[in-house]
Amino acid sequence: MGRMSEAPLTKPEIDFPEGPAPTELEIVDLVEGTGAEAQAGSTVEVHYLGVEYDSGEEFDSSWGRGETINFPLRSLIQGWQLGIPGMKVGGRRKLTVPPAQAYGTAGGHPLSGKTLIFVIDLKNVG
């Protein structure tokens, strides 16, 4: 008997990255979704986990708050604006986002200058 595709995903574990941080946005599908596809102008409902590339420290997680979040893609960091479209509901995607596509290369934000890894579960698209 096959695994049900609607099985809820649990909080992801992120392996400590090896090697130097990528200079380009990296997009890896961990689970292929089968639902509606996110577009650049979509509002998305996601569960996500964010860790710093260099330290492996978790800096943000909707899992920690126990609820998904909803937001328009255009209001997010460039790495998400570029990395989420094409994803389908039910999918899980890992984005490795260099500073220029995250919170900038210098100052102004605690995560400035850092390469960030996000694992994003797409729950719904509006």
From TrEMBL:
Domain PPIase FKBP-type: 41-126
Region: Disordered, residue numbers: 1-21
Native source organism of the sequence: Leucobacter soli
UniProt-listed Enzyme Commission number(s): 5.2.1.8
Gene behind this protein: fkbP
Family affiliation: Belongs to the FKBP-type PPIase family.
Keyword line: Isomerase, Rotamase
Reaction equations catalysed: [protein]-peptidylproline (omega=180) = [protein]-peptidylproline (omega=0)
The protein, known as: Peptidyl-prolyl cis-trans isomerase
Class of this enzyme: isomerase
Keyword Isomerase part of the UniProt annotation: yes
Domain of life assignment: Bacteria
A single GO molecular function term of this UniProt record: peptidyl-prolyl cis-trans isomerase activity
